[in-house]
Amino acid sequence: MTSADLSKIRKRYIGKLTIKEPYSRTKWLSVRFRAYLDLFRGFTLLAPFIVSMSIMVASLIYSGKTIPGDWWITVGQASLTIVIVNAASNSLNQATDVKGDKISKPYRPIPLGIVKPDEAQSLAYILYLIALLRSATITPWFGFFIFLIMVFTVTYSLPPRMKQYLFINQIWIAIPRGFLGILAAWSVFGNPFEPTPLIIGAIATTYLTGGMATKDIVDSVADKQTGIRTLINTYGNRKTAWICFPFMLFPFLFIPMLFNYGLEGYLWPLIIVFLPSILILYLMIKPAESSTLENVHAWSIMYTQYIFFALSFSLLTIFNSA
């Protein structure tokens, strides 16, 4: 069977694999169902899922507690809860960004008219409720951090709509995806107010404060026309790249200094995580949009680097405690 035959079978049964492919009727998935899935933006859910799982396992090993037999069930349920919050945020963001998406991302389900904005918004609220109720059954602190993440993501898209304010929008999205996400994951098995999770969360937040500018490159024109000020449409690609580069570089280079503030010494290899930041700098200056993913290559590498940071932290913690 040739690759062309496999492609025909795939398109017949499950339709498109990437969001930029056209919608078509399939045997298993309707166009409308696939459109709902696209509201969640699957690629962006990989980072919170893998990062949260990594942090949870690290906190379990770090705590020194007896490992329960069903630990993997707890990790899976808590990680899925964090994914649901992110899916709700993505759905809400698309429901409130219709004008901009018609300009920069017309292939999305709402600009195409397959899903209505109020449907996407209702779906987001349902997912938020599911995540909040589920989080409360895991640990009280986990539920508290999930609630804070929800507050940040809702107010990013809805009034006061922090997305429209220059500089603040970068920080507003970095805090829930970095600091609060790390503390939420750590709180499943450990104390989130220990130095290690607080410092790791601060490193992640600082990195994401710079890295999240990559998501605005494709939306530069649309954001400007809809009254949203970002670093990209205010200072341009080159200047924004150099503004953001220190945020993506120094959190890792300063790791040795953080040993004096409670960070464990065995984490020194995390310094090398800064290397992809150099590539991101270059790709921000000379951006090229991906033919399959929604944004530029710098954006996808930024997510990959964040995943690598969390996995490296988890592995170092596990091997140090072995």
Please describe the topology of this protein.
Layout: H1 3-13, H2 31-39, H3 42-63, H4 71-96, H5 98-104, H6 117-136, H7 140-157, H8 168-186, H9 195-211, H10 220-225, H11 231-253, H12 255-258, H13 275-285, H14 297-321
Helix pairs in contact: 3-4, 3-8, 3-14, 4-6, 4-7, 6-7, 7-8, 8-9, 9-11, 11-13, 13-14
Features:
14 helices; Farnesyl Diphosphate Synthase; mainly alpha; about 325 residues; globular
Overall average pLDDT: 94
Rg calculated over all Cα atoms: 20 Å
Number of helices: 14
Q: What does the overall shape look like?
A: globular
Sequence stretches where pLDDT stays below 50 over 5 or more residues: none
CATH class: Mainly Alpha
CATH fold topology:
Farnesyl Diphosphate Synthase
Number of domains: 1
Backbone structural class: mainly alpha
Per DSSP E runs of 2 or more residues, the count of β-strands stands at 0
Q: Hey, roughly how much beta strand do the residues contain?
A: under 5%
Order of SSEs, N→C?
A: HHHHHHHHHHHHHH
Helix content: 55-70%
Largest sheet: none
Write up this protein.
It contains 14 helices and no strands. It is mostly helical and 322 residues long. The chain has a single domain, classed as Farnesyl Diphosphate Synthase (Orthogonal Bundle). Helix 3 packs parallel to helix 14 (297-321), helix 6 runs antiparallel to helix 7 (140-157) and helix 13 (275-285) packs antiparallel against helix 14.
Summarize the structure.
The protein is mainly α and 322 residues long. The protein has helices spanning 3-13, 31-39, 42-63, 71-96, 98-104, 117-136, 140-157, 168-186, 195-211, 220-225, 231-253, 255-258, 275-285, 297-321.
